[in-house]
Structures are given as structure tokens and as C-alpha cells.
Amino acid sequence: MIEKLLIVEDEFIVANDLTNMMENAGYNVCGTADSVESAKAAIDKYQPTWVLLDIFLQDDSMGTELAPYLQEKGIGFIYISANTNQSILEAAKATQPYGFLVKPFREKDLLIMLDIARSKHETSLQFTAQRELLLQQQVRALTDEQTTLESKLNKIPATFQSLIPFDYLAFSYTPANSNKPESGAFFRVGFNEYQVLPALEAKQLIQVFYYQGSQTQIRKSVDASILNGGAFHSFQAGRIPGGGLLAPYRLNSSLQLLNKTSEGTLQLAFFNRNENGFDHSHKTLLCKNEKFVFRLFNTLSLAYNGDSKTLRRASRNQPVKSVPKFEGIYGNSAALLHVLDNVEMVADTPVTVLILGESGTGKEKIAHNIHLLSSRQDAPFITVNCAAIPADLIESELFGHEKGAFTGAIEKRIGKFEAANGGTIFLDEIGELPLESQVKLLRVLQERQFEHIGSSKTIKVDVRIVAATNRNLEKEVGEGRFRLDLFYRLNVYPINLPPLRERKEDIPVLARYFLSKSAEEMGRLEAPELSPAALKQLSVYNWPGNIRELNHLMERTLIKTRGKIVESIEMPAVTRTDSIPATSTGDNRKTLEQIEAEHILSVLKSCNGKVTGVGGAAEILGLPPSTLTSRMKKLGIKKELYHDR
Ligand SMILES: Nc1ncnc2c1ncn2[C@@H]1O[C@H](COP(=O)(O)OP(=O)(O)OP(=O)(O)O)[C@@H](O)[C@H]1O
Q1: Which of 439, 473, 496 is the endpoint of a domain?
Q2: Beta strands across the sheet bearing 50-53
Q3: Last residue of some domain: 449, 475, 496?
Q4: pLDDT in tens, 31-46
Q5: Does 252 sit in the ligand 1 pocket, CB within 6 Å?
Q6: 470 touches ligand 1 (CB under 6 Å)
Q7: Which residues are modified to 4-aspartylphosphate (predicted)?
Q8: Given a cut of 90, is residue 50 above it in pLDDT?
Q9: Same domain (yes/no): 68, 174
Q10: What is the mean pLDDT of the chain?
Q11: pLDDT tens column, 190-207
Q12: Is residue 519's pLDDT more than 70?
């Protein structure tokens, strides 16, 4: 089928060039528009499959304003703009386009992007269908289940979590023959754990976050609205100065639903700690499944007594438990739980996952869990560290070689892709892959086939790909070090792992876990407890080496602690140095890169410039030597800065 494409661009010549380019490539350009209003009219008239969208349009309108309209209609869009202003780029990215091209670009780049956008769109449609089905099945099971009302009620938050990720959910249901709403609220405290909050709290919140407008003004029987980031804060500030009840939950976005039928009125308010917690796909999903959602609350004939449950908090002497369902993952911060929601969602699909995050944040752990939660769990999980293999050996490592294919190939060897057949291949530090190897990898991603070096026989494999990097790949693409087409092939389902300093709530759990793990390894009967002062030390530190650094610090702390309590911790010294190239913010504050550089430098000095091996800086920082050297290079840390001659 020839796909219909609409071009929204206010410069006539550019629109004309784009039209010719796309028509030559076999697309049906159904129209062009130069403003948001004319674009809406064209969308209604032509119902295009794709929209190429400029950001600055006629009449001072912005292409980004069109995004919600397109999302509601399920039309994919790609921004094409000459603007590289960071805040505009960020705002555009937040609208979740299928791609972004900066003018001028090559025709080839646009075609590749559309090709990839198509496969992303298909993936997202599959996800939506999967999520809807899951919701419908869960609602059916809940309404049919012969169990207590309380048990059903407790299952409500988990039922919604897979559809619309939230940290806080409030509901209110008023049967038509009553004017007494039945309300409740749930606050997420663990992966599948929720605290049930008092009905009064839910009632008050619903009153505030009720669909914006009084009940009498609402004509539609189903409606939903989103408040993200700034809009959420100003709405909240106007109605509950200081955040009121919500303040302790540190929420930053909301999605409200109102569903009015002859049987009753249902109001739901979902809240998220993310600034951009909700998008139009969530709203559409909720509205589309409104009957199921309504039925859930209606048939439960709620008799919720509004009691709050006391939170189960891990007491000091309780063994620290990993997050249920996930192997070796500790922590319960909202940021980690959001990551795990994504992992659960994508795990049992064939979709390529790109894990982004600083070194030591747990990327490999997450990749392994994706494998373990997939139907490939019994097949191999093969890790390839793209930074650790010399550039001239990468292809032989990945694809294998025949005997005599090159000097040193004394026997035939299969590569990592073949070894991972049926399972998952984890391409760690993908940002370090040399450009020449990137094109070869692209072919495997597209066709799942390759040849051994020294052979022309094509080998086909069935491998799920998970890649990870601590580099900003978009920047690498911009600077010509990473292929755009490979980036888009890998970036189908990105998962961002936040650094430890942005999820400090995880530190106590992780620290206790590492202490008890090390105690067990060292044959000690009991791990010491962390004093409040020690916990405070851990929480104010910046953790440039993330979880890996915390692990190593806890190992060292255990060795030094004889008693039952760790009173204080010998934290890594962060010394000042003026020799580090400044990437200053322009005021007195240091950038994270400066802090990281200073920290690395101080460790290097403390081990007399030894980078690798026992007692070397890489070991102390808990980083693979290759990662440390690449960080040093990036941060401009030269030998003369840390080595005494
Ligand atoms: N949530 C977690 N709970 C417990 N341990 C964790 C968690 N995340 C990571 N770790 C541990 O922290 C260490 C670093 O994790 P991992 O190797 O997965 O990080 P990474 O981001 O892949 O690092 P790099 O970029 O340097 O390869 C490992 O020992 C891992 O087991």
C-alpha cells in the first residue's frame, strides 16, 4: 500500500523540495500545510499515515502544538527543523515523535528515518493492543473472581499499572441512585506493592483534580485530560497552594478521567513523579477502554470502608529482599520502579532494547533481567563488551571466522551471534563500536544474517538484541561517530537508567544488601548495621561510579568494621584541582563532569597513577579499565596531571 504523507512546512520552496523528494521515493504526498490550523484541516480531509512536521510555522504557531492531535488519531510524525535550540529540541522530543531531522539533511536520512518510524509504529501498535488485552483480561478476572471485596480492591492498582504507569491513583465512584461517592487511593511503595490511603484523602484529591470544569459543564460522558510538568504545577498551585495533601508524594504530572453513565459517575486521577508521566496514548487507551474501566468499579459495588493500611517497612534486622520477579535487583525508588515497568512490558517481545545510563547504573543487570523474563530464558544470554575488543577483532568476535581467514585464525570459530542463537545478545558499550563494524552490525539487525569472515556462506540466526551505552548516542551521531541508521535501529525501545544520585532512596537498601552479600562471601556470621550518620554520609555523596562504586565501598567498609554498627564511612575524597579542563556552567557551581573528573583524578593520585590491576584506580572506582580510560580521555585527564615523574 502506498503510504499517504502530509507535509507541514511554512516555507514554500522547502515544502516543494520535500514533496518532490518523497514522491520520487514512492510516497503519496496528499497535501501540504503551512500552519497548525491548515494542517488540522488537511489531516481531517486526507487522513495521512505520516506527517513531516516543521517546528516554526505561519502565524507564530508551533508544529509541536499539532502533536496531541496526531497522537489522538494514531498518525506518526517526524519533525524536520532547522532549529537546534536545546530547549525547543527538548520540548519537541517530549511530544514523542517518531524521529527528528535537523535541516539540511540527506534524502537518504529521511527515507531511513521513515523506514524505521514505520517499524516503531508497528511495535507501538502491538504494545497498545497487548496492553488493552491485558487490561480487559484482568478486569474480567477481577469481576468474575469469587473473593472478598478487599482482595479485589487490592488488585485494582496492579491492574492499572500495566496500562498506565503511576505512582498514585485516586478513584471516586458514585452510583446513580446515590449521592455518596465511594473513594479510595493507592500509593506505590514497591514493584507490586501499594499503600491503601484513607478515603477522605482520595475524595479531597478528586475534588481538586477532577476533570477541569464543574460537573454541570461537562457534556461528554467520557473525558480525560493530562497535566504534565509546568501545567500540573500551575494547576496545583492555583487550587492547593503548597501542594497540600500531595506535597509529600512529590508528584509532577496527572491524568484525569471522568466517565458518566446512567448507572453512575466514575472519576479517576492518576499521578506520576515524572514531569512527563502521561501522554496521549495513555489518555486514548483509557478512553477507549472506558467501558471495562467503568465495569470494574461498578460491579465491585464498592463498600470500601476507607481504612488506611499501615505500611510494611523493612525493619532493620529483616533480610534485604530483591524486587520480586527481578533477579538481583534491589531498590524501591519510583525511578527504578518505572524502569522495571518498562522492562516487564518489553521483556517478552522480540523488540530491540537500548539501555542508556552512566557506568555502573546496572545496565547489564537490566539486560539480563529482560532475557530472564522473556520466553528465551532457557537459551543463552551472551554479552559482548564492544569496548574491550580490539577494533580489528570485533567482526571475528561477532560473526566468527573460518580457519586461515586471517593471520592468527588457526582454527574455525563461531561468533557471538551464533552462540546466542535462540537467546539474547547483549551488546554492551555499543557507543564504542568502530564505524566500520557498525555497518556490519546494521545488516544483522535488519536481516538477522551474516557470514563468517573468510566464507561466503550466509548464516541465519534468531537472536534478540539488547544494547547499552553510557554515551549520548544522539550526540555521537551528530558528531559523525555513530551511524544514524544504526542508532534508529537500536533505539526502538529505549530504557533510561537514572544515575544513583537521582534515586537516592535506593541507597539504604543497596548498601545493606552489599554489606550482607560481602559478609556472606567473607564468611562472617552477621553484617553490621549502618548508623544514621553513616547513611547520611552515603546520601550526600554524588556517586560518580554509581551502584558499582557503592558495592566496592561497602566491601571496603565491611573489612574495616569489626563491631555490629558502621558508625562512619571513609568516603572517597573529592579533591579540588584547577588543572582539569573547565566545562563550567558560567557561575560558581561545578558541572557533573568536573566533579567526576576531580574524583577520578583524586583516585588516580591516591594509587600513584596505577589505572589497571589490583589496587589500580579502575578497581577502586569499580569500573572496567576500558571504561575508565575512555572516561579519562573524554574528560581530558592526561598522565601528567596525576603521575609524579
Ligand atoms: N538494582 C541493583 N541491585 C543490586 N545490584 C545492582 C543493581 N544494579 C546494578 N547492580 C550491581 O552493580 C554493579 C554494576 O552493574 P552493571 O555492571 O549492570 O552496570 P553497567 O551500567 O552495565 O556498568 P558499565 O556501563 O560500566 O558496564 C554490578 O555488580 C551489579 O550486580
Answers
A1: 496
A2: 28-33, 4-8, 50-53, 76-81, 99-102
A3: 496
A4: 999 999 999 999 999 9
A5: no
A6: yes
A7: 54
A8: yes
A9: no
A10: 84
A11: 888 888 887 777 877 887
A12: yes
Q: Given the CA of residue 547, which atom of ligand 1 is nearest to it?
A: 12
User: For the residues 338-360, what does the mean pLDDT come to?
Assistant: 93
Q: Are residues 162 and 104 in the same domain?
A: no
Residues whose CB is less than 8 angstroms from the CB of residue 450 and which lie 6 or more positions away in sequence, other chains included: 398, 399, 415, 417, 440, 443, 444, 458, 459, 461
Closest ligand 1 atom, residue 627 Cα: 26
Share of the chain above pLDDT 90, in %: 38
CA of 389 to the centre of ligand 1 (A): 20
**Residue 213 neighbours by CB under 8 Å, 6+ apart:** none
CA of 622 to the centre of ligand 1 (A): 10
- The CATH number of the domain holding residue 356 is 3.40.50.300
Count of the separate structural domains present in the chain:
3
- Which CATH number fits the domain that encloses residue 214? 3.30.450
pLDDT score of 135: 84
The count of residues in the chain is 645
Question: CATH number, domain at 83?
Answer: 3.40.50.2300
pLDDT score, position 22: 92
Burial class (CB in 10 A: 0-12, 13-18, 19+), 85: exposed
Backbone φ and ψ for 46, nearest 5 degrees, come out as -100, -20
DSSP 609: T
Tens digit of each residue's pLDDT (9 = 90 or more) over 351-377: 999 999 999 999 999 999 999 999 999
Specify the ligand 1 atom closest to the Cα of 428: 27
**In-domain check, residue 606:** no
Instruction: Tell me whether the omega of the peptide bond preceding residue 104 falls within 30 degrees of 0, making it cis.
Output: yes
386, part of any domain: yes
Co-location of 110 and 151 in the same domain = no
Q: Residues 152-161: what's their mean pLDDT?
A: 84
Same domain, 397 and 358: yes
Q: Is 244 found in the same domain as 294?
A: yes
Residue 201, pLDDT score? 79
Cα 435 to Cα 485: distance, rounded to the nearest angstrom: 12
pLDDT digits (tens, 9 = 90+) for 194-240: 888 877 778 778 877 764 444 444 455 777 888 888 888 888 887 77
If asked whether residues 206 and 79 sit together in one domain, one would say: no
Q: Are 415 and 452 in contact (CB under 8 A)?
A: yes
> Cα–Cα distance between 210 and 228 in angstroms, integer?
15
Residue 335 placed within a domain: no
CA-wise closest residue to 149 among 309, 310, 297:
297
Q: Are residues 155 and 292 in the same domain?
A: yes
Domain ranges, residue 290: 147-299
Distance of alpha carbon 573 from alpha carbon 561, whole angstroms = 19
Residue 128 falls inside a structural domain: no
Q: Which amino acid is at 55?
A: I
Q: How confident is the model at residue 644 (pLDDT cuts 50, 70, 90)?
A: low
Which residue did the predictor score with more confidence, 629 or 457?
A: 457
- Cβ–ligand 1 distance for 499 under 6 Å, the answer no
360 within ligand 1 shell (Cβ under 6 A): yes
